[in-house]
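Subject — a protein and its fold
Fields — amino acid sequence, C-alpha cells
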Amino acid sequence: MFSSNGDEEIHLEGQTKTSICSIKDSNTRVSKTLVVRKPAKVIFNLDPTALNSKLEQPWKKNFFERLEARAQAMQQKIIDKDNLKKELEKKAEKKLPRDNLAKEWFNAENMTLNTRAYLLDKLLPTLVPGVEKMLMQVEKKKLRAEVDNTTKFNPINHLGEYLMRNNPYYIKDSGMSGYQRVMRDVTEALKIHVPNTTGNRISKMKESIKQKREQRQCITEVKVQVANTRKQALQEQFSEWILDPKGMIPLVVIQNVLHEFFQNPDLHLEACCKQLDIADSMEPRLNKMEFTEYISSHIADFKSEMFEKLLKHICHCADEFREVIKTDMRRQMFAELFLHCDRGKVGFLDRQRTLALLETFYDQSSKTLRSLLRNPRQWPFIEFEEIDLPEFWGDMDNQKHIYEDFDKVLLEMNALLSEKHASKTQSKLLETPEDQHKHDEHNESTLPEEQRETTSEQEPNRISAKEQEQDRESTGERELYRESVTEQETHTGSTPEQGSSRELIEKRPHGDSVIEQGPPQRVSSSEQGVNMESTAEQGLYRESISAQGQHKGSTAEQGSHRESVAEQGSHRESVAEQGSHKGSTAEQEPSREIIPEKQQDSTLQSERGSIFRESKISREATSYEYTEISPREEKTQEQIYEEELSVSPELQEEVLTSRRKDHLSETTRKESQKDPSCEKSQEIEGKSWSGELLTCNWKMNCIKCEDEEQANLLLGNSRFTDLHSIIRNIQSYKEVKARSAFNGVSLNLLQFVQLLETFIGEDVPLSVSETLTSFFKRGYVETKEEKISGLEQARQNASRARRELLLEAVFQKWDSDGSGFLDLKEVDELLYTYKEGMEKESMKKAKLHIQFSKPHPDQEVRLSLKQFQKYIELVVSELRGNEDHVLESVVEFLMNTLERSHIENLRNCARRKWLYQIQRAAETSGVSLEPVYTETFNALTQDAEAHGNKKISAHISLLEENLLLPDRGEVLLRNIACTLDDAPFVLNRVLYRDMKGISFTVVDEGKPIHVPQVQHHGNIFFWNHSLKKNDQNGSFLALPLQDAYMRIFGVMAVDTLRDPQKINIFVPHEIRFYQGVANVFSTAYHYVHSREHILHVVIRGIGWLCDIASDITTITTYFVEPGPTRGGKDSDYVLRNMMVTGHLGLTEIHKNPPTIFRKTCIFRDFLFKCTDSSEVVLASVCGENHIIIPLRERTGKALGILDFNIGRSKMLLYREFKDLQKMMKVVQAACYEILGELSGEIKKNYVLEIENVGEVQRAGVLFFRIMLQELQESLRLLTSLDFVSLLLYDYNLPPEFTSPSDSKSQELEANTKLVHDILIGVILFIHPELELSGDFRNWEKCKLYVKSYLVENICEFDPTAKNVKVNLQLIGKHIRDHSRIEVWEFGNIVIEYLYQWAHICLALMELNKKPSSALAPPLPSKTDSCVYAKMPKETVPGKC
C-alpha cells in the first residue's frame, strides 16, 4: 500500500478493516491539533450462513424405530414379571399370615450387629424352619414323653439332613413361611445399620435425599411466605402512590423507580438494569396486583435488608412523584398562559416584557412570598451580556442575591451557632451534680418570663406584621443552624415541626403548656398561619431525604394541628431522656415540668443531628388542609389578582402552610399501614391527577419547528416532486432535535414555561402560580404594531426555513457525487439561461455583492452549500417580483434543468447516507476520533465496492512539527489511521520531505493528485519492500485535508494496489466523492476537537472555582448527542456524562461516558429541561439542590450542561454565587470562541504568547486569557478617584486607633495589610526591579508607582511573554496570604479587580513554565477506563 506520499501498502484478501493508532499530540504551528490513536481492536465478521446438514438415510431411521420398539417390549416384559411376582406374594400372605414373633430378632446393638445381620441373612432363614421341623418330628414320635424309647432318632442328623436338603444355594422357590417372611423384612431393616455396606450407603443416601427434599420444601415454603409478605408490603406501598382515574400507575414510572434504585453505586445492582426495558410512553399501566407482580419479578433474589431499602426508596419516590405531578400541573398552567398571551399564534413572546411583569409581581408580593420567589432582576433571569462589567466583576452587595436577605440570615445563624456552642461548653464544664442542679435552677428561674413574652407574641388575634417578620427571621436562623450541624449526633423519628418551633418551646411558660387531651382537631387558616409562621424561612435550607423512615401518615393527621405546645414539650422531654421519639405525636401526654437548659441543649443537639436522617415528607402534605378551609377557591380570578396585589393574609398562610414538613414516628407509621383510613389523598391541593404527564409531549404537539413544517409543505407541493426524496433525506439527517435556541429577545413555549417555573420555585403552592397566571393575563398586552411585527417575524422565519431547505435540496441534486462543492463557472452558465438569458445582467450585478473564496490552483472557484445559498439569494434579490415567488421559480428552473438518471439518484442517496454516518460518528463518539476513522474508511471501501467494483486501501496522515530531525524539514506527515490489512506496514510511519512521494506536493499545492499507474511513476515510495515489482500495479489518489480557513492539516490517500484487476484507475465521479469524504472527515475531525477543547476549558474553570466555592459538592459535565435511531428516524437526544468533579476538585473523566435517556429521568428531568430550553434551571432532588447551567452553541442551542450540586443548601452565598457566574461567563465565552474559530465564522485571536504554542495547548490557557481580558476591560473603566482611597491606608495610625484590644483597630490593621500586599504584588509584576532595590518594603516609595499609567501597564501586561522575569515566590507571598473571603469582606472594587488579576497572572506564568505536554487535555486513552485531573493548588486564589 502507498502512504499519502505514494508509499506502498500491503493488501490482504478478505474484507477491508479499519485500524486506528493513537499518538501523543505534538506542538504544531502549521495547522490544527494532531490527535493520534492506537490500533483499534480487530473483530472479524464471520459468515452467518449455517452449513446445510445431510439428509438422514431411510434405513437408519427404520433401524432406530425397530430397535426402540424391541427395547420397549423387553422393558414391558420385565415390568410384567415384577408385577406377577408381587401378586403371588400377596396371595401367599393371605394363605400364610405373618408371624411377628420374628421381629424380636431386630436389635441395632453395635457389638453384635454384624454377626446378627450375617446370621439372619445366611443361616437363620434355613435353620429356624429346620429346628421347627425337627421339634415337630420329636413331638410326633413322642420322644419327650417316653424315657426308655428305643427308636433310633438322632435330632442332630435330622436337622443336618434338613439343612442339606434345603440349602438356599441349590433350592429355589422353596416357599416361605410367615415367620421367614417377617425375618426377611427384619434382615433387610438390620442391614441398613451395618456400616460400609451397600444397604447402609443407600439408606444414608435416601435419608440425605429426604432431608434435602424436606429442606427444599421448607425453603420453598419460607420463600413463598416471604414473597407473600413482600407482596403484601408492596400492596401497602401501592396506596402511597397517586393514581390515575382508573386506579393505576404508569409502568414507566415504576421502571424509573427501579432504575434509580439499581443505579445506586453503593448497592452494586447495575446488572439488574439490563432486565429493565423502559417503556417509551405513559400508556402501559399497572393496577395493584400488576404493580406487585412486576416489582416482585425483579427483586426475587433480594435479601431482607435490600428489600427494606427498596421499600423506603419506593415510598420516597411516591412522594417525589406527587411533586412531579404538581410540577407538571404548574407547567401545564404556564403553557396555557403562553398560548393565551400568544394571541397572534407566532410561537414566541417578548422576553423583556415577560421579565418586566415578573419584576412587578415580585415587587408587589409580600415579604413572606418574596422569601420563596427568586429575584427576576438577577442572574439567571438576566444574561451575562446584560450586566455591566463593573457590576458583574466588582459588585459585592449581598442584597442583590437571588434570594432576599439570604446572606444576612445566614450570618445571624452563624451567630446563633456560636452562642449555642458556648452554652453547651459551659454545661459540660459543670462537673458536680450540685453545680449542674444550681445551673438548672437558674435557667428555670429565668425561663418563664421569656416564655410569657414569646407566648404573648404568638396569640393569633394580636400578632402584628412586624412581629411575624421577626419570628420568621429568627426561625430562618434556627433552620439554617440545624442544617449546618448535620454531622452531630442523630435522633431518629423527630418531626420537622419540632425544629421549626424549637425556640417557641424553650420560651413558653409552664402554665401555657397545659391543654386538654382529645382527638386531633382541624384548625382555621389563621390559626395555621400563626402556628406555622415560623416556617416561612425554612426554604433557606432544604431538609434531606433519608432512607431511615418514610411518611405514611393519614390525611386526617396531615390536616390536623397535631403538635400543640404541650405536646411539643412532652416530646422534647422524651427525646432528652430516651434519645429517640417513639409513638405518635398526638398520643403523647402533656408535660407539666419545666425543661432544664441542659436538657434543652441535649434535645436541640439531638434534633439537629436528626435533620438529615429524617424521611422527606411530601411537599404538599398540608395542602389538603387549605383545600377545605381556603376561601380562595370560590373566588374569581379578578379577586385573586386583587388579593395578591394587596398582600392578602390568606395567601401568606397558604405559602406558610405549603412549606410545612410533617413526619410520623415508626410506631405511627406501622399503625397507619394497617389502617385503611390512613391512605394518602389522591388529590394535590384539591386537584385530581388526570393520569397523564402533559408536558412530556410538548415538543411533539406545542413546539413549532419551522424546518419540519416547511418540509411537510414542500412534500405536499407537486411543483417540487423531483426534490421530495432529497428533502426527506435532509430531514432525517438533521442535527439533534427538540432543543430551543436562546436568542435573548423572544421566548418560545419551553423557555417561557421554564422561566416562570424558575421564578416560582418548587415550594410555592399552586394557588400562587394561579395568581401569577392571572396577573400575566392582565399585564401582558401587545400593541397593534407589536402584533404585526411578530407576525412579520414569524413569516420571515418560515420563509427563511423554506428557502434554506429548497436551496439545500437543489445543491444536493446538483452535487450528485457528494463532493460538497459546486463549480461557480458551471453554476453561472446554467443561471444565465434562466428566462432565456433575459435576467443575465441582473445576475451579474449580484456577483458584485459577494466575496468568493480564493480560486484553487486549477483556477476553479468552488461554492460550498452556504456560499451557494447566499449567492442564489443575492441573485433573487436582483430579480423583479416577490422574492419568495422568484426563488421558487429559480429553484424550479434549476430542478428541471438538472437532469439526473435513476442510477445517479440512487448513487447520490447511498453516498449521502455514508457521509452522514461519518458526521454522526463524530456527534456520538463521546469525544473520540476512533469512530470517525472507522466510518470514514467504511464509506471509502463501501463506495469502491458498490460503485467502482474495486478493492481499495486507505490511510490518513496528519502534519506535525519536526522536532527530532529538523534538518529533514520543518514538518512531517505521520500516518495515524489506516485500513486494518495495511497496519503492519503503514501505521505510525513517518514521511519526511526528503523522501520520495507526492503527499507533500498535495500539501503545498492544496489540490488532489491522481496517479493512474504507480508502476510507471518515478516518485512513489513503497513501504513494503518485500513486494515484488510485478505486483506494484495500481492507482493512487492523494487528497488534501483542509480546515475552515482552507489550511492543509493532513492528507487522505486511497489506492487500488490490492485490487486483482489490471486496469483499476479512479474515475471522475469516484474522485469527487472522495473529495466529499475528505471534506466531511475534516468537519467531523474538528467537531470532535472542539468538544475536546471545551472539556479542557471546563476543567480549568472548575479547578478555578472549586477552591473558592466550598459549598459546591459535585460538578457533573454532560454533552448532548443524537439518540439511537429507531425505525430509520432519530429519536430524542441523549446526554453523555463526560466527567464528574468531586468536592476536593478532583475530576474523573470517563473513557466510555454513560448515556442518559430522557425516559429514565422522570424524577431527574431537570437535566433535559435545561437542554430543551437552553436556560438555567434550579431544581431539588433527594434533598439536594442543583444549579444546572447550559453551555450554548453560537446558535443559542445547548451543546452541553453543567450540573452544580450544592448539597442541602438552598443556595450558595452571594460571594460564591458571583464566582460561579464569573466562571460560567468565561467558559461560555471560550466556547463561543472555540466553535467560531473551528467553523471559520471568526478569525483566531492570539493575545498571549503562550497561545502560539499549539491549538491544544491554547485551549488549556483560554479560560485564564478570557478572564484576564475581562479584568483588564474592567480596570480600564476605573477612575483615579477609585485608587485615592487605597493610598490613605497606612501603618502609621494615630494612637487612638492602635489599642490592641480594640476590634476596629485590628480590623483597620488587617485591611491596611491587605491593601499594601495586593498593591505591592501588582506593582512587582510591572516593576520587577523593585525587588533588587528593596524599595518594595517601603510603602511610601511604593505609593509613588500608583499612577495613571499603572492601569495602562496592567492592561497591556502579558504574563506569558518571554521578556517577563518576575519573582513568583515573592509575589505569591503577598497575594496568596489573603483569602478570597478577606478580599470580599473588604468590599473595595479596586482590590477585587487587582486580586483576581494577580491570581490569573500567577496561574498563567506557572502554566508557561511547564512543558507543552502539561497543557494537553487529560482525556482517557484506549487502555484507561477513566483518568483524573486536578488543577494545581498554587494556581488559584487562596482557599476560603
